[in-house]
Design brief:
Length: about 180
């Protein structure tokens, strides 16, 4: 299965009387697959079920999956008993080695031209804020708040006033690593 090109994966889960066939068909016809596994030269699949998984169910799922493979395909499969799965069967299929004509061709697309909405194309002109200094009272008794420009302030500068030398008498006030740097032990 190595160096054989694209690989496809499908998962099918089913319960009930025909759970093996239903899970295998769901895995082969999975919506995750761009195309079927017809003509695959390499298939790896696993069948997972609870303690009630039978050899007949394993054989039925294997028959459905291998029917769509190339007659000379290399097929590897396994069966797993999962104690937590109750009346449920899960089939996972990985197929590879397709003929190049079977794979879908990539469609060349060109990105659509982008035109921003008209409100983004308009040039924005900043407008100064409106300033009112009086409050108007309407007939409802509520006051209308006016917009005020905030007062201009100076940028805040931090004050640095750490004098570690004034508390030299009390060694517990100064952390040990700072005392060591200052030469005080």
């Amino acid at each position: 299965m190595q160096n054989t090109g694209s690989a496809l994966m499908g998962i099918g889960i089913a319960t009930g009387e025909n759970r093996a066939a239903d899970a295998a068909k769901a895995a082969v016809d999975s919506p995750l697959l761009e195309l079927g596994i017809d003509g695959a030269k390499g298939i790896l699949f696993t069948i997972t079920g609870g303690p009630d998984l039978t050899m007949y169910e394993v054989n039925e799922a294997a028959r459905i999956i291998t029917a769509s493979a190339d007659p000379n395909a290399k097929i590897i499969f396994g069966a797993v008993i999962d104690e937590d799965m109750k009346d449920e069967l899960k089939v996972t299929v990985i197929a590879t080695g397709f003929a190049q004509t079977a794979l879908p061709k990539k469609v060349q697309t060109t990105p659509a031209s982008y035109a921003p909405p008209s409100f983004l194309r308009q040039e924005r002109v900043p407008t100064p804020p409106e300033v009112k200094s009086e409050r108007n009272e309407d007939s409802s008794g509520f006051q209308e708040r006016s917009l005020r420009q905030p007062p201009k302030t100076k940028p805040v500068q931090p004050r640095v006033s750490a004098d570690l030398g004034t508390q030299a008498d009390d060694d517990y006030e100064i952390p040990a690593f700072i005392r060591r740097k200052l030469g005080k032990k």
